[in-house]
Amino acid sequence: MRFSQGQNLRQIIPVVVTGTVGAGKSSFIRSVSDIAPVDTDRKATDETALIKKKTTVAMDFGRLHLGNKISVHLYGTPGQSRFDFMWDILIRRAAAYILLVDAHRPSDFRYARKILSFMKQRVNIPLIIGLTHTDCKGAWSKDNVAIALGFVDEKRRPPIVILNPTQRQSVVQLLTILAKQVLQKGK
Ligand SMILES: Nc1nc2c(ncn2[C@@H]2O[C@H](COP(=O)(O)OP(=O)(O)OP(=O)(O)O)[C@@H](O)[C@H]2O)c(=O)[nH]1
Ligand SMILES: [Mg+2]
Q: pLDDT tens, 32-64?
């Protein structure tokens, strides 16, 4: 367990935010961080440029204080698998992680499964799946995405939450649930 420096000792919970390209990882961190977030977004030069102008090439970092005891440190991964050495570095430090999946890009669901299995091979820590872009045309329902990700049995799947990463309140809510799970596990 790590604590932050200074008069107000806070327990630090390192959380990794991973997921498919353009799912909203950088937005997630940007919308809740109470310090200026660090991002490594650079001009996209490959097929990602068809989806968005910039993409994360190393990591994002942000921090959110929850109450006066907890400090959530947020590490965002790049979406592209050519940067998967960063996935490896970041996940090994994490106490929990969030997998963001863009609900309106079914062609990416296979890739989301690949990220999930990469993480599961390395860690056994609390996970929440966040469904994004559910407000966009063609978005799949939660249950159908769950099945596409390989979670056929509802009772044996990780929590799946619908959220918009650009909206602070839904991100704070999700992080509060995750922090509780981490603290519960540590007891
Ligand atoms: N409509 C809508 N737009 C969203 C949602 N989530 C994210 N976005 C938008 O999607 C775009 C991509 O978001 P980013 O945060 O850059 O995605 P990323 O996961 O960091 O992408 P990479 O680093 O390239 O993998 C931004 O324009 C966001 O504003 C959502 O739930 N609904
Ligand atoms: Mg990003």
A: 999 999 999 999 888 888 888 999 999 999 999
Ligand 1: atom nearest CA of 132 is 31
For residue 136, give Cα distances in angstroms to 54, 94, 104, 133, 165. Answer: 20, 31, 6, 5, 13
User: 45-75 burial, b for 16+ CB within 10 Å, e for fewer?
Assistant: eeebeeeeeebbbbbbbbbbebeeebbbbbb
Neighbours of 4 (CB within 10 A): 14
Please tell me the distance between residue 56's alpha carbon and the centre of ligand 2 in angstroms. 4
pLDDT digits (tens, 9 = 90+) for 125-153: 999 999 999 999 999 999 999 999 999 98
pTM of the model: 0.95
Q: Quick check: helix, strand or coil at residue 147?
A: helix
CA 140–ligand 2 middle distance (angstroms): 22
